[in-house]
User: Fold Phosphate-specific transport system accessory protein PhoU from Shimia gijangensis.
Amino acid sequence: MNERHIASAFDSDLEQIQTQIMKMGGLVEEAILDASKSLKNLDEELAEQVRAKDKVIDRLEEVVNEDCARLIALRSPTAGDLRIVLSVMKINSNLERIGDYAKNMAKRTSVLAHMTPVDGARGALRRMAREVQLMLKDALDAFVQRDAELAQDILERDRDIDQMYNALFREFLTFMMEDPRYITPCMHLHFIAKNTERMGDHVTSVAEQVIYLVTGSMPDDSRPKGDHYTRELSELD
Amino acid sequence: MNERHIASAFDSDLEQIQTQIMKMGGLVEEAILDASKSLKNLDEELAEQVRAKDKVIDRLEEVVNEDCARLIALRSPTAGDLRIVLSVMKINSNLERIGDYAKNMAKRTSVLAHMTPVDGARGALRRMAREVQLMLKDALDAFVQRDAELAQDILERDRDIDQMYNALFREFLTFMMEDPRYITPCMHLHFIAKNTERMGDHVTSVAEQVIYLVTGSMPDDSRPKGDHYTRELSELD
Assistant:
């Protein structure tokens, strides 16, 4: 077997797949920004666009999965190269999930547009989503540049997202206790907050895959956990 | 290349991996039952056990992933066999996620044990979880027997889970509007209901992988969707 030839053919195939991943990442970033903008402005038209565009992201995920399977089948990569492809498949799946959460934010926007508005919360949710989009941007840069340090930094930043979620959860409870008319809209806003926090978790696992690609081992979960009475709400899921 | 020899070696390796998957599936079924039982009885000790056992499930997922990667690297399976391994890896990931949701149910049990009890809801959640566990049992049987019909049946049954979730969501809203002391516990119970509905979605994607393994193509999503005003809550995520 001509290792050299197989290696170079593998590399050029992988290069093409990474280009697809970056394209997909760009679409997912756009989905996060547009979804949170549509929520902030209760813009049902923009929300509709986000939901339509998610089909493109889903299709891209299938293409990348197919390409990865074809790459493995055709090039029979070595154990090391195989791990790279499997990591790329995981990143691919993370991106698709983040896109789904953005789509769900857009779906709930259409529901919230017909309910009692909850002042302030939508702006806070938009800031939280913006933060997640910036983390994703850096995670994708870390992926392309194989930059473990930048990826490690994202693991830290995900804690801020968790803090934002915890603060919002308490804010929603206060709203609901103040006035029962806030209960239903706050249930939806709470889901959006939780899903945005989950987007952050998926960005984090993209970053973890990058660290794995560069260092060969997954980072230890060194995040301090409270006991099950003092545990922060963001740790419950 | 001796196709015959490679095929048989591949088959026996795959056989071993499937045994691991079934072992994992059994642990996940147990986790669902124990978590919902601990919730029903607010049994913090049992909840603690569920959370401890989730580490075993997570470890098994890693082992299966490693074994699948090794199988691909050593046997260079044909495109068809490769798809089987990739499907098994997807099922593996679905099982791990379901285990996570059971763990989360157990975590919230520990929180709910210190709050105003919400009558009836915990029993309904246990019935819903029991239904999901039975679906998972059948999905795993369908996987082992490569039974596409049984798998298709699971896709139908997931609609019942969605209905149970929608009913519970409305019940929680009623509780919260009745008495503000119910708001915080109901927020947690609602998450448990949503996560149980998501368990059903993951069981469904296990069933879809089985259909893919048998028929070579994924089932179309024929589930009727409402427009974005009438859409059921279970379709919002």
Q: What stands out?
A: Helices of chain B lie at 3-40, 44-75, 79-112, 121-145, 148-178, 183-215. Chain B touches chain A through 38 residues (CB under 8 Å).
